[in-house]
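Q: Got a minute? One more chain.
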Amino acid sequence: MAELTPTQIKNQSRAESTEILRKILIAEFGEDKVFQTGDSEFSVLWGTAPDGKEMYVNFSREVKEFEGRKTKMREYPAYNGKEQAEKYKEEKAKKDESKAEKAKLKAEKMERDRKAREKQKEIREKARQEKAEKQAKKQGS
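A: Always. Here it is, folded:
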């Protein structure tokens, strides 16, 4: 029996994973809410939107390259899920840090703006009081 090519191995994995994904989705959501919408995609009736329309969530799977290969037009590096997970964690941590910094700066700006508005309000109130006092003195004289 001939050895399977990388493409045949990927196709076999794709077929097996499609069936597993289908079974998982049906077990979780029910057969009446799971629809296969493509060779590698399922759509699940998730619920109803506030306007009454049906909402769907799509689930798909992709078989990644398990060994690097090269064609005339393109190079396909071998995929390493663990490395990708680490990169994702690092990128997410940077984004979270950036969001936190932006939120901190925004809060500081809002506080400065609030204080500036209060100061302007005090100045206007003081000016109104002085004007009222001048008018009272003018009317009293």
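A: The helical segments are 6-29, 81-140.
Q: Perfect, thanks.
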